[in-house]
Input
Amino acid sequence: MTNKSDQVTDYQPETLAVHAGTVRSQFGEHSEAMFLTSSFVFDNAAQAAARFIGEQPGNIYSRFTNPTVSMFEKRLAAMEGAEQCIATASGMSAILATCMGVLKAGDHIVASRSLFGATVNLFNNIISKFGVETTYVSATDAAEWKDAVRANTKLFFLETPSNPLTEISDIAAIAEVSKKCGALLVVDNCFCTPVLQRPLALGADIVIHSATKYIDGQGRVLGGAVLGSRQLLEPVYSFLRTAGPTMSAFNAWVFLKGLETLKVRMETLSANALELAKWLEKQPNVSRVFYPSLLSHPQHGLAMKQQKSGGGIVSFEVKGGKEAAWRVIDNTKLLSITANLGDTKTTITHPASTTHARITPEARASAGITDGLIRIAVGLEAVLDIQNDLLNGLK
Ligand SMILES: *Cc1c(COP(=O)(O)O)cnc(C)c1O
Output
């Protein structure tokens, strides 16, 4: 196998997205090959022994490493500016593997109150069984993070912009707090991808991805990734290699191809989202629009400093509560009613009765998830067609 790309790590991000990590087989294929094999053969018994004790690098078994998965890992690592990337079966298994790798019984997590629902469930109902407690604090107030720190605090966890209200956490400010107390800052970079935001450069220690969303970009397969220094990720890899929630070669191949078009997709859907958000602000039946690139966003300045653009998630509140929100959703013909995001197809959802239905009405109200709130994950359609689809129920 030849590997030209190993010599070319100083290319621009656009070039890395297309070329980094590529390793060609003896056949000289141009598009990366998909290695659908669970195990690898050795020339002789001595080579097998050398591989197993780690004396000789190389593949053994696809729960440990797989060439297609390794290509994806190298490419995403180059794009995030990380020393290492470990691919996982899903975004949730990336978060689980990180916890299993770096935490032990008695440790404490400080986490943003605005997290993906399954992440909260993982912290509250699964990791907690192993004696790890979590304290939730404001996504936007670094002082609250500092006040929540205990002697046993090991991990800070946030995602920015938040879902669905697009609150922005100041990664650099929170990284400063985590460094002072010796905790690791983990940032779920799913909504921005490395095209729009690079948390490691802002002081984060570990970046998490749900590749299922924008990295795939077409709603096909599940996957995730953990990125950071080789030293930090060593126990994370050890957990994955042993427990097995690793990425399949097929999915890695889909994501490799997804990374090649990530920049053009993120730029187009960000531009679409901004145009839609500005239009929504002018609609008489819309009382409020949440989108980081809008001047009306409470953290517009921070967002534009930290991110290259606003991303694809736009949320807005309609007048008339749940009934009005459901009317808008039910009268769409083009948009897909689904809670998934990061697809070329625009999706629409009612957070209060879906993604945030299991939390109490009081908690929902204090989080700002009102009954009139609608979340849109903007895709690649013409904005005019999305607007007209929304007008059916907005008029
Ligand atoms: C979807 C999502 C996850 C979980 O990813 P899966 O691939 O579905 O396991 C984690 N974080 C965020 C922000 C997400 O949107």
Summary: The chain has a mean pLDDT of 95. The pocket of pyridoxal-5'-phosphate is lined by residues 90-92, 116, 118-119, 159, 188, 190, 210, 212-213, 222, 224 (CB under 6 Å).
